Amino acid sequence: MTTLYILGGIIVVVVIGLAVLKALFEGDSEQEKAKYQYKRRNFFLTRAEHECYDALVSAVGAEYFVFAQVHLPTLVDNKVTGQNWRGAFRHISEKSVDFVLCDKAYISAKLAIELDDKTHERPERQERDREVERILQGAGVPLLRLENRGSFNPSELTQKIKDALKAESGAKA
User: Fold this and answer.
1) What pLDDT score does 17 carry?
2) What is the pLDDT of residues 62-108, one digit of tens each?
3) Separation CA 87–CA 37 (nearest Å)
4) pTM of the full predicted structure?
5) Can you tell me the distance from the alpha carbon of 106 to that of 89, in angstroms, rounded to the nearest whole number?
6) How many angstroms separate the CA atoms of 3 and 160, rounded?
7) Main-chain dihedrals φ then ψ at residue 71, nearest 5 degrees
8) pLDDT higher for 139 or 117?
9) CA distance 104 to 122
10) What gap in Å lies between CA 131 and CA 94, rounded to an integer?
11) What is the secondary structure of the chain as a DSSP string?
12) Taking the chain, what is the end-to-end CA distance rounded to the nearest angstrom?
């Protein structure tokens, strides 16, 4: 009989312990979850990004849609056979490119564009840039890197875009 009481006591302690752990890791209800606060941003793009966007629209707006601040999961598919697709998604979910040119017929990505400013000189940013380049190259999305020199010439951008697209089509041949 004493053994039953001891066994029953152990079971009760284990059940209570598991309930406490569950409460710590999951929260007991929706009401206990954090309620984060947010505020509207005044500007979607930085000044340099806005100037580059305007120049891109001027350069190729008749031929391509120009999208800004595009996250990589919008451009590339993480569900590749043979890999952990959740892990692959987490790897790209916080990464983005500054601009993407899409054809107007299918809204299909033709060229990703990164505007490099001083932050791209930091070692951790260079590592991130190399990884984004690797991801896009592996997925077949060409990437054009533009240096932020303070102003953007639409005709120069048109030529750089043509060169990047031509290089990509030459690489596929």
Assistant:
1) 56
2) 999 999 999 999 999 999 999 999 999 999 999 999 999 999 999 99
3) 28
4) 0.77
5) 24
6) 82
7) -75, 145
8) 139
9) 36
10) 12
11) -HHHHHHHHHHHHHHHHHHHHHHHHH-SSGGGS--------S-SS-HHHHHHHHHHHHHHTTTEEEEEEEEHHHHS----TTS-HHHHHHHHTT-EEEEEEEETTT--EEEEEEEE-GGGGSHHHHHHHHHHHHHHHHHT--EEEEE--S---HHHHHHHHHHHHHHHHHHH-
12) 82
How far is 34 from 50, CA to CA, in rounded Å? 34
Amino acid at 86: R
Of 65, 64, 68, nearest to 45 by C-alpha is: 68
Instruction: Show the tokens assigned to 99.
Output: 């601009």
